[in-house]
């Protein structure tokens, strides 16, 4: 892993690394915490400032976790916000609102966020009675279908081999 860190730092501009560090400092991390995070999870340097900003905002705002949770679970910044984090958190709230036995609490939430799609659905949706499972599945599918603004209007103009 060390060779990847050296390569990433070697090919990155100093300004880019400063922007990434400054972005994490906005959320209250010290320099030591940031560089320890980069040391434990060096691929963090490959994430865009925008992605880290969106995921951190979601973690703090919607999930109501402290920023320090990222130091323990860096995968939260790697996860796809629209396809994994948001739908699963919204599904947990829906289960709670329906008064069902909420199996996604505390540390189990982190496990649920890391599961494969199939395993997640079996553990948290299909374990309920058929009618409830169908309603939860419809809600989960609609939550996954919500895209960011202008996401649907993007055009891929690549034809043939991309040169």
What does this structure look like?
- It is a single chain.
- The chain is an all-alpha fold.
- The protein has ten helices and no strands.
- The radius of gyration is 19 Å and the shape is elongated.
- The chain starts with a helix and ends in an 18-residue tail after the last helix.
- The model has no long low-confidence stretch (mean pLDDT 84).
* Unreliable segments of 5+ consecutive residues: none
DSSP helical segment count: 10
Order of helices and strands: HHHHHHHHHH
Roughly how many Å is the radius of gyration? 19 Å
Jot down its keywords.
single chain; 163 residues; mainly alpha; 0% strand; elongated
Can you lay out the helices and strands and say which pair or pack?
Layout: H1 2-11, H2 14-25, H3 31-40, H4 49-61, H5 69-72, H6 75-78, H7 81-97, H8 106-114, H9 117-124, H10 130-145
């Amino acid at each position: 892993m060390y060779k990847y860190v050296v390569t990433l730092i070697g090919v990155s501009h100093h300004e880019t690394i400063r922007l990434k560090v400054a972005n994490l400092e906005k959320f209250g991390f010290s320099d030591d915490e940031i560089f320890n995070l980069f040391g434990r999870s060096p691929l963090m340097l490959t994430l865009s400032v925008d992605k880290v900003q969106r995921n951190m905002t979601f973690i703090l705002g919607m999930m109501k976790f402290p920023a320090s949770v990222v130091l323990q679970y860096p995968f939260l910044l790697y996860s796809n916000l629209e396809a994994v984090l948001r739908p699963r958190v919204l599904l947990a709230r829906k289960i709670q609102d329906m008064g069902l036995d909420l199996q996604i609490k505390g540390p189990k939430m982190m496990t649920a966020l890391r599961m494969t799609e199939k395993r997640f659905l079996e553990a948290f949706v299909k374990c309920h009675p058929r009618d409830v499972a169908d309603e939860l599945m419809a809600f989960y599918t609609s939550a996954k279908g919500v895209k960011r603004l202008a996401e649907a209007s993007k055009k891929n103009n690549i034809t043939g081999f991309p040169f």
